[in-house]
């Protein structure tokens, strides 16, 4: 291929953009790939440029290209607005613009032509474009490898939404299988040790994970409250419950209140990320803050990789997002699982039933996780040595996988060598 020019296409969601930013960083800086063009929807522009703002050493290698959002792209007024926006961006706004970009770049009389497309496996269309334009292609899974094989339920959606999303994802499942056949490579942000059965079933998929931010700013798309790290310094070792639900999950007022009361009942220190767009928090937090005092700290966003590395963290109570799962396990932290949608339910099964590094919550009447249930599961998790021991074993395996000679290390190097042929 000579000097490679890689076109990177993430699915337009925070948890999918960040690992592909890290992969782009690895290819550009660590492995010296000639040039990378990273494509994303326009409404992510500020966040992505902020994440790369301190990366002056790779500014000349990573080129950012934003796709304009369609006017009135989503008329869905529900708690699933984020899902609809991601679907609209990924399946409707991006394809034509990406096609135009490739045609423009590859029409130039220069050595700058695209030589490979690396695309999120949720996007079935890029591999078809790659085939039509004679470009090499690789799919990338930002989720667990098993998500290549199994589609999770969308239990939080209404029936009308469910039918619409099912239609899209049935089409996606078909195009995914086709794109997997068309792709020269299939990469996954996972490790062989975590999902050996899935990798044995789909041998074309190569684990290259965990793709963790090589420094603390890369991939963090929201402004962080770094003062929480000083607060953590003041807490005893293995004492703090870290609570975070990612960028998309929302808790209604009842769930939010039960979580707050559950944290209060534990009588343990906690660091709780409450996003500024979570309106359920407005009327509930003031009296709560007065009661828990300095035992609890609430922030709008935290530097998560630094947080889970901190010696004071005892466990993570979270939404079971794949990136957060890898970050916690890479630091030997046991988990409390509160899944919300999509692959999070599969991740919870892994965490609780396969790896045995955490516990899920039982829901009263199938709907509400009560404050007592939260308190009891915290005590059960932290009162047993099993979950911590298992998490520490996975920490060693995950870190060994990206060391020289590890499975993920070797797979990524093989991919880089192929790019440079």
Describe this structure in words.
The chain is built from 15 helices and 13 strands. With 421 residues, the protein is of the alpha/beta class. A 7-stranded parallel beta sheet has the order 3-2-1-4-5-6-7, with helices on both faces. Strand 5 (136-141), helix 5 (159-182) and strand 6 (185-188) form a beta-alpha-beta unit. The longest helix has 26 residues, at 81-106. It is globular. The termini are close together.
Summarize this entry quickly.
The chain has about 425 residues and is α/β, with parallel strands linked by helices. Helices cover about 45% and strands about 15% of the residues.
| Sheet with the most strands: spatial strand order | 3-2-1-4-5-6-7
- Tell me the overall shape: globular
Which topology of the largest domain does CATH recognise? Rossmann fold
The first-level CATH class of the largest domain is given as: Alpha Beta
What is the alpha-carbon Rg in Å? 21 Å
- State the helicity in percent bands: 40-55%
- How many distinct domains? 2
Keywords: Glycosyltransferase, Transferase
GO molecular function: quercetin 3-O-glucosyltransferase activity; quercetin 7-O-glucosyltransferase activity
Organism: Acer saccharum
Pfam family, one: UDPGT
């Amino acid at each position: 291929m000579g000097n490679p020019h890689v076109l990177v296409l993430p699915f337009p969601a925070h948890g999918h953009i960040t690992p592909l930013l890290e992969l782009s960083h690895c290819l550009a800086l660590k492995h010296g790939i000639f040039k990378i063009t990273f494509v994303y929807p326009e409404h992510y522009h500020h966040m992505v440029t902020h994440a790369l703002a301190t990366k002056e050493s790779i500014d000349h290698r990573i080129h950012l290209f934003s796709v304009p959002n369609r006017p009135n792209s989503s008329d869905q007024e529900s708690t699933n607005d984020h899902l609809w926006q991601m679907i609209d961006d990924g399946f409707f706004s991006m394809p034509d613009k990406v096609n135009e970009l490739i045609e423009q770049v590859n029409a130039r009389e220069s050595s700058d032509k695209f030589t490979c497309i690396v695309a999120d496996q949720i996007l079935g269309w890029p591999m078809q474009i790659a085939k039509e334009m004679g470009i090499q292609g690789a799919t990338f899974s930002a989720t667990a490898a098993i998500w290549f094989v199994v589609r999770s339920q969308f239990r939080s959606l209404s029936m009308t939404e469910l039918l619409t999303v099912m239609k899209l994802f049935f089409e996606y499942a078909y195009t995914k299988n086709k794109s997997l056949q068309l792709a020269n490579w299939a990469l996954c942000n996972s490790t062989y040790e975590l999902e050996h059965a899935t990798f044995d079933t789909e041998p074309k998929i190569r684990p290259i994970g965990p793709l963790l931010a090589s420094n603390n700013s890369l991939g963090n798309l929201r402004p962080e409250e770094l003062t929480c790290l000083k607060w953590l310094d003041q807490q005893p070792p293995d004492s703090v419950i870290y609570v975070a639900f990612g960028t998309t999950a929302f808790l209604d007022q009842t769930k939010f209140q039960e979580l707050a009361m559950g944290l209060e009942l534990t009588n343990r220190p906690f660091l709780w990320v409450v996003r500024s767009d979570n309106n359920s928090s407005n009327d509930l937090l003031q009296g709560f803050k007065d009661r828990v005092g300095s035992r609890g700290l609430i922030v709008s966003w935290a530097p998560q990789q630094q947080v889970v590395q901190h010696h004071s963290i005892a466990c993570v109570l979270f939404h079971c997002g794949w990136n957060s799962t890898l970050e916690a396990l890479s630091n030997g932290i046991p988990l409390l699982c509160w899944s919300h949608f999509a692959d999070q339910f599969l991740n919870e099964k892994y965490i609780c039933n396969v790896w045995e590094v955490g516990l899920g919550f039982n829901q009263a009447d199938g709907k509400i996780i009560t404050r007592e249930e939260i308190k009891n599961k915290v005590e059960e998790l932290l009162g047993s040595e099993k979950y911590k021991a298992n998490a520490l074993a996975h920490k060693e395996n995950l870190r060994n996988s990206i060391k020289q000679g590890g499975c993920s290390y070797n797979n990524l190097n093989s991919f880089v060598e192929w790019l440079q042929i």
